[in-house]
Write a structure and sequence with these properties.
The structure is a single chain. By secondary structure, the chain is α/β, with parallel strands linked by helices. The protein is 28% helix and 15% strand. The protein is built from twelve helices and 15 strands. Helix 6 (168-178) crosses helix 7 and helix 11 crosses helix 12 (327-334).
Length: 336
């Protein structure tokens, strides 16, 4: 995850375990991260949200009704509420209403049990991790395996937390320093879908940064801005001023024809490399529900399709790494 600028693809694209081996274990748990490393992942990804007392915890969203057992805990029933998160009305339980000590009493659950019943069988086995605990896990596994396990934390919804009086960027910067990751060469890449927080973090920490983008919409902190404009050749040059990488949706990297078949690369990887940015597309998942029609196999959304072909096409397009819920598949498709 070195931040050195390059105009060509990395010789060995990195496998980023998206929320751990989240196709096999409940996401953002020690079990998911350890399995990902055992399967050969180079990097583990913790999405980060903030608690009421300003702690960084690894959860996909600040709404935790779908990823923990909070809904079954009578002592927290009164905390169910509704919030506007980046323009969307969301109901449930939110990390900003809990202290870290309270969150530590909860147990993790599979977010997609209908698609991943095997993972759901591990509900209740793990607690909610802090960023410090994820970083410690990566250090211990690096020492045990003899290979560097990188971290790819994502700052989730900084604009929302800022409105609540919780400034994400200084907390993130302090955490990076505390974990020995405040260096341009540190095995870390800090992600965000918003622009301002990455620019602010660049003034607080030397850690490399990646601007996440999507096929639709735009940054929550820049009303009117569009991700589509950010991934043009000129837009990528603007990103390169404050970030070292771009994280597009995989559909922004590859063409899909009218029949749902892969049809070669778009220009994004070449344009990003020309701007000096690395490219880490998200997210390859094995289930039919997440694959284009031409790669689906079997009869149900939960059946696994031909994710290997998607992974190989991304590698052939010259990406520097790929986010995947099934690290073993990504390692096998890469060829080592």
């Amino acid at each position: 995850m070195a931040s050195a600028r390059t105009a060509t693809a990395s010789p060995r694209p990195q496998v980023v375990a998206h929320r751990g081996a989240s196709g096999y274990r409940p996401e953002h748990t020690a079990s998911a991260y350890l399995l990902a490393i055992a399967q050969g992942a180079d990097v583990i990804e913790p999405d980060l949200v903030l608690t009421k007392d300003g702690a960084l915890v690894a959860r996909h969203e600040n709404e935790i009704g779908g990823t923990t057992d909070v809904a079954s805990r009578p002592e927290f029933a009164a905390r169910r509420t509704a919030r506007d998160i980046d323009g969307e009305r969301v109901e449930g339980w939110f990390t900003e209403d809990f202290t870290l000590a309270e969150l530590k009493t909860l147990r993790a659950r599979e977010r997609l049990p209908q698609l991943r019943p095997g993972s759901a069988r591990h509900d209740g086995e793990d607690d909610v991790l802090t960023f410090a605990e994820v970083a410690d896990l990566a250090r211990r596994e690096s020492a045990r395996t003899g290979r560097t396990i990188g971290l790819c934390p994502e700052m989730k919804h900084p604009a929302h937390f800022r409105r609540l009086g919780l400034a994400f960027e200084p907390i993130m910067a302090a955490a990076l320093k505390a974990e020995g990751l405040d260096a341009a060469t540190a095995p870390v890449l800090v992600q965000c879908f918003e622009v301002g927080p990455l620019k602010t973090l660049s003034t607080l920490s030397k850690a490399p940064r990646v601007q996440l983008v999507s096929a639709e919409g735009g940054p929550a902190d820049l009303p009117g801005a569009r991700y589509a404009d950010m991934v043009t050749a000129e837009g990528l040059k603007a990103i390169a001023v404050y970030a070292q990488a771009v994280g597009p949706e995989w559909r922004q990297v590859l063409k899909v024809d009218g029949a749902g078949a892969l049809a070669g690369p778009k220009s994004l990887v070449a344009d990003a490399h020309a701007a000096g940015l690395k490219v880490f597309p998200w997210t390859v998942r094995a289930e039919n529900a997440f694959l284009p029609p031409g790669l689906r196999r079997g009869a149900t959304p939960a059946d696994h399709g031909d994710a290997a072909s998607l992974l190989k096409a991304l590698y052939a397009a010259g990406v520097d790494g790929v986010f995947c819920d099934f690290p073993d598949l990504a390692v096998a498709a890469r060829g080592a």
